[in-house]
Design goal:
Radius of gyration: 27 Å
Number of helices: 18
Largest sheet: 7 strands, antiparallel
Oligomer: single chain
CATH topology of the largest domain: nicotinate phosphoribosyltransferase
Low-confidence stretches: none
CATH class of the largest domain: Alpha Beta
CATH superfamily of the largest domain: nicotinate phosphoribosyltransferase
Helix content: 25-40%
Number of domains: 2
Length: 497
């Protein structure tokens, strides 16, 4: 099968609109679209950015098809001119994006596309497909990993919604805190090792006997000496034979606390808190104090939190479908909205307040203050119109006050000389050419960890987090109200004979 061009994982109406733009002479009108989300899933305080690297790849491949390809979904003579145009169309605009591993708050532009209208419009669906999937997985992985100080491995490929989802979902999970993944393709593509040892079928392939379990353990150790050795001990009975066979085999094969590559046992069923405590006592009693206990079995952040509350003796968790499918909230809410056309800010008016968007070409500043006890702490995000008076104050280090958009009595003043700032959206494509700095998967993960550390503990907690200040500039606020006021007056006075 030919490789799929993800630039065309799209909806038909992106192209029916495109035909109209072409035939009415509007295809080259400059447009600005923002990709952002309105509300994080599961009452998260924020979301983790992943997917911008694939967004860049998607945009680069736009137009790399022959006219015959477009005839498959735009048939007929009436589309002939449009098909010819599409086959030679290349992206010529600019794209600004947050780094992978960035922490983003509602309504902040994660990806900004500034381009001729038709080029920007046809990107809507594929960009949302990429970003919604990866940000759902990354945000869930962040929650799971923040539930424990112990390592979490991503084991969800078999539950993922297809090979693409498994591969890029595992990447997103590692960015957002997972120590490793079982997915070999993700590992190979990103230059990181994948992890895994044995399934129950390996043990039952020796026959359903206690001695068969022993033989399976022995053969596994002898064929993987020099690697980490993890034996699955719950195939028949964890306490009465599984852990005992593991101890017996470790002894026979000379594996003990001096083994330099690490060794352990895995629990995949039953009462994990109870079993881990019992297994730890048995291992310690036999002198295997450095033998690690790994746990899997439909885990998520809530179960992990409860296991640790019960005093479970688990050293590492393997989490599958909860991360790979973002099981509790599988549909992430990124949207892609036109915010400026031909230099003029625009918005979509909605009777649902949450759907009212911020208009104009925007930029987000993250404000940092030094805390004597905690060091550099992020204190607020402010989204401005590019170059507006608020943006100028921030960049000059002047005093400014940020107000909550929906409660102007809530505000925070930052005096001159008391803060530093950084921009969250960086150029990744300029004039159609990629200018993004490439980062390895481990660099993205490190960036996420570093970013997370600069938020307060109350903002990082899973239950009832303290909500971080993320607001808009006065100029953006006034622009929004002005458009709404004008539009509302037109609507009130509108009628037809």
């Amino acid at each position: 099968m030919d490789k799929i061009n993800i630039s065309y994982c799209s909806d038909k109406y992106q192209y029916t609109m495109g035909k109209s733009f072409l035939e009415t002479g509007r295809k080259d009108t400059m447009a600005v679209f923002n990709l952002f989300y309105r509300k994080a899933p599961e009452n998260n305080n924020w979301a983790v950015v992943s997917g911008t690297e694939e967004v860049i790849e998607c945009i680069r491949n736009l137009g790399n098809e022959e006219p015959g390809f477009y005839e498959k979904f735009l048939p007929g003579e009436e589309y002939a001119r449009f098909r010819e145009y599409l086959s030679s169309m290349r992206f010529t605009g600019n794209v600004y994006a947050m780094r992978e591993g960035e922490i983003a708050f509602p309504n902040e532009p994660i990806v900004i596309v500034e381009a001729p209208l038709i080029e920007a419009q046809v990107l809507e669906t594929p960009l949302l497909c990429i970003m919604n999937h990866q940000m759902a997985v990354a945000t869930k992985a962040s929650r799971v990993c923040r539930a424990t100080d112990r390592p979490v491995s991503e084991f969800g490929s078999r539950r993922a919604h297809g090979p693409w989802a498994a591969t890029y979902g595992a990447k997103a999970a590692i960015i957002a805190g997972c120590a490793s993944t079982s997915n070999i393709l993700t590992g190979a593509m990103n230059g990181v090792p994948s992890t895994g040892t044995m399934a129950h079928s390996f043990i039952t392939s020796y026959g359903s006997t206690v001695e068969g379990e022993h033989q399976a353990f022995r053969d596994y150790i002898n064929t993987h000496r020099g690697e980490g050795l993890i034996l699955l001990i719950d195939t028949y009975d964890t306490l009465k034979c599984g852990v005992l066979n593991a101890i017996r085999t470790f002894r026979e094969c000379g594996i003990d606390d001096s083994y330099p590559h690490g060794y352990g046992v895995r629990l995949d069923s039953g009462d994990l808190a109870y079993l881990s405590i019992k297994v730890r006592k048995i291992l310690d009693a036999h002198g295997l104090s450095k033998c690690k206990i790994f746990a899997t079995n439909s885990l998520d952040e809530y179960l992990i939190t409860d296991l640790e509350r019960q005093g479970a003796r688990i050293d590492c968790y393997g989490v599958g479908d909860a991360i790979a499918t973002s099981k509790a909230a599988p549909c992430f809410g990124n949207v892609y909205k036109l915010v400026q056309i031909d230099g003029k800010p625009v918005l979509k008016r909605s009777e649902d307040t949450i759907k009212l968007i911020n208009p104009g070409f925007q930029i987000t500043y993250r404000i940092t203050r030094n805390d004597p006890e905690q060091g550099e702490i992020f204190k607020a995000d402010v989204t401005c119109l590019r170059g507006d008076s608020f943006a100028q104050k921030i960049e000059k280090g002047e005093e400014f006050t940020v107000y909550a958009e929906h409660d102007r009595y809530k505000y925070k003043t930052f005096e001159a000389g008391t803060y530093s700032w950084k921009v969250l959206q960086h150029p990744v494509i300029e004039g159609g050419e990629v200018v993004a700095t490439r980062h390895t998967l481990m660099e993205k993960k490190a960036y996420y960890n570093e970013t997370l550390a600069h938020f307060s503990p109350s903002e990082r907690r899973l239950i009832n987090p303290h909500y971080y200040k993320s607001d808009i500039s006065d100029d953006l606020y006034r622009t929004k109200l002005s458009i709404l006021d004008t539009l509302n007056k037109e609507i009130e006075g509108f009628s037809i004979d």
